[in-house]
Structure formats: structure tokens, C-alpha cells
Design a protein that fits this description.
homodimer, about 200 residues, mainly alpha, Arc Repressor Mutant, subunit A, 11 helices, DNA-binding (chains A, B), transcription regulation (chains A, B), transcription (chains A, B)
Chain lengths: ~200, ~200
């Protein structure tokens, strides 16, 4: 939760308040009035920063999407064997999800009622497709098992990763980002069964 | 969607309509008026069957919980090596989730605003705990890897399974229940990597 005072509000701090309210109340259930109360500034002050509630949504989900698509541009995601690139992308997805937890949580809850939401869903599908392509390439190399259909395997691995938003709390008491990322990579690639 | 007519309504068919409406509108966002319209019967006819909206919720989530807890009473979940019992339970969780898709979907979306919701969350935690205990026993036997903390591994496997409600559609065109159950068991226990 931001502790920014009225005179220190920036588009960035306003966004972090908005994302928190969207996640608590749902985007549809949030009014500019709710945002104004949560931020402790007037509606006209909010309109000084953004044109609409939907602009805040677009900025918030863009931040999550930029984080995710940014992974695909990183060197280890672009070069080398497909299976290693895939493993790198899975690890980085967990890291980005935790680093941008409220933004990714919002992205995963988008439902498609507005143009911005439909655009976000479309971008999510593009990202899923890019990762599925990587998995397909790894299967073609013979590094990833061929007995589970690629689209289904992608969905299940995404399901495992995305479920982290339901329980991960960055309160310093629980596990760290690296522990979670390691566990996801271990389970996704090698499974629960002990390998001797 | 049920096609039951007014004179054929039973608590069972009313429940299936209610669960669909709860899943579409959210439990909090559903009124008896919404249920009455969706069922095509008067509110007083609904009150002939149930005392309240909350009773419908309780019956619906009970059906999902009974399905899940029932697994633990099945012979292969009770006898044999812990790792095999765990694998059986994981497979059956996917089967029950798909067989009772709308009911489990509702259970997974419960938020805790009412007594019934808090009771359902408590029962879910008990189920998670039972499965975590099984995983702990399998790790103690040396059959399940020891390098991923049991609670974290349980959460990730549950995340994979529960994510199925987000995309599985029993429309006959997509994959079958067995294909999904096989994939989950393969990925959860052996991972994506091809074993040579």
C-alpha cells in the first residue's frame, strides 16, 4: 500500500492504489469514487493524471504484459536449445509474476467486458501461444515428452504458475521468490517423483 | 442448462440452475430474483424447495466437497504405498473436478463473506491438508522428491488441477476427461522432460 501524500502523487503511485482497489472490488465494481477515497485525493485530481478508469486498467495490465513479453526478448529466451529456453521462460514467468504480483493478478482476472479487457485477453493469448510454440519446438527436439499434447501441457504449466497469485503473499515471513521459482521449474520439468 | 419445466422442478434441477447463475454473476451478485428468472419459476416456488440463497450455496459446495472427500475413502486412496495413493488421489481429483465442473468451479470461487463460505473454505483447507499429509508420507518413503517443500508442492499441484475449471468445456469437441487426467498425472509426477 502506498503511503504517498496528496502532493506527492504521480501516475505511478496512483496506479498502485488503483490496482489494489481493482483487485479487491473487481474492475467492474470499482467507481472513480472508490478510487478517489482509496487514494485520498479528489476525483478531479485523478482526472489530472488519467482520462478514465479504463486508462488506469490499461496502464496496469500493460505493466504486467510488458513484464511477461519482456521475458521473451531476453537473451536466454532467444538463443539455445528450445527446452532450455522454455525452462528459462517458465522460471522468469514466476519471477515476473511475484515481482509484479498485483498487476499480474489483475491481468489474470480480466473478463472481457470492455475494449481494454478484450485487448488484454488477446495479448495473453498471444503470450500463451509464444510459449506453446517453444514447447512444441522442445518436443520436436525430443527434449520434452511427446505423450502430452502441447496445448494441454502449456495450459497445465500456466495453471500451476498462475495459481501462485492465489496464495503468495510478499510479507517477508513466507518463502522467497527464488524458492517458488525453483519449485515450479523442478515440478514442471521433472515432476514430483524422485529420480534416482 | 436444464430444460426442466415448472412442474418438473426438483431440488436437484433447481440446484443446477442456481450453480450456473452463481458462477456467472458471482454468489454475492446473485439475488433470489435472478434465480427466479433463470429458473423460470416464482420466488415462492423456490422457497418451497429451499429456505434461502445460502442454503443453495451450501448444497452446491457440499456436492463438490462430498465428491472430493469421497476420493479419500476409496480403496486405492487408503491402502498401498503413499506415492501410489497420492497418484490415485490426483487422478481422481481431476475426474471429480470435470464430472462436477460447475460445482467445483463454485467451490473454488468461494470468498468467505458468509458462514457457509467460511465453512467451505475450512473444508477445502482440510482436504488440502489430507493430500499434503499423503505427499509428506510419500516423501518420507523416498518416492517423492525431497527438495521441494511439501506444502509448496501441494499448492502447485492443486494449482495445476484447479486451473482446469478456467478452460475445460464439456462440449464434446475438446479433450476427454481421461486425456486431461492422464496429462495431469504425467506432468505432476514425471514432469515435461522426456525420460530416456
Amino acid at each position: 500500500m502506498t503511503t504517498a501524500r496528496r502532493d506527492t502523487y504521480t501516475p505511478e503511485t496512483l496506479l498502485s492504489v488503483a490496482v489494489q482497489v481493482f483487485n479487491e472490488r473487481g474492475y467492474d465494481g470499482t467507481s472513480m469514487e472508490h478510487l478517489s477515497k482509496a487514494a485520498g485525493i479528489s476525483k478531479s485530481s485523478i482526472y489530472h493524471h488519467v482520462a478514465s478508469k479504463e486508462e488506469l486498467l490499461r496502464r496496469a495490465v500493460s505493466r504486467a504484459l510488458d513484464g511477461l513479453f519482456g521475458i521473451l526478448d531476453e537473451e536466454p529466451a532467444r538463443t539455445g536449445r528450445a527446452a532450455e529456453r522454455l525452462e528459462y521462460v517458465v522460471r522468469r514467468m514466476v519471477e515476473v509474476l511475484i515481482a509484479e504480483l498485483p498487476y499480474v493478478t489483475l491481468l489474470l482476472r480480466v473478463r472481457g467486458n470492455t475494449g481494454t479487457e478484450r485487448w488484454a485477453l488477446q495479448r495473453r493469448r498471444e503470450f500463451d501461444h509464444r510459449v506453446a510454440e517453444l514447447m512444441k519446438a522442445a518436443a520436436a527436439d525430443g527434449d520434452v515428452r511427446g505423450d502430452v499434447e502441447v496445448r494441454l501441457a502449456t495450459r497445465l504449466v500456466f495453471g500451476m504458475i498462475n495459481s501462485i497469485v492465489e496464495w503468495y503473499r510478499p510479507d517477508g515471513r513466507g518463502m522467497g521468490r527464488q524458492e517458488v521459482a525453483d519449485a515450479v521449474v523442478q515440478l514442471a520439468f521433472a515432476g514430483l517423483r524422485r529420480q534416482d
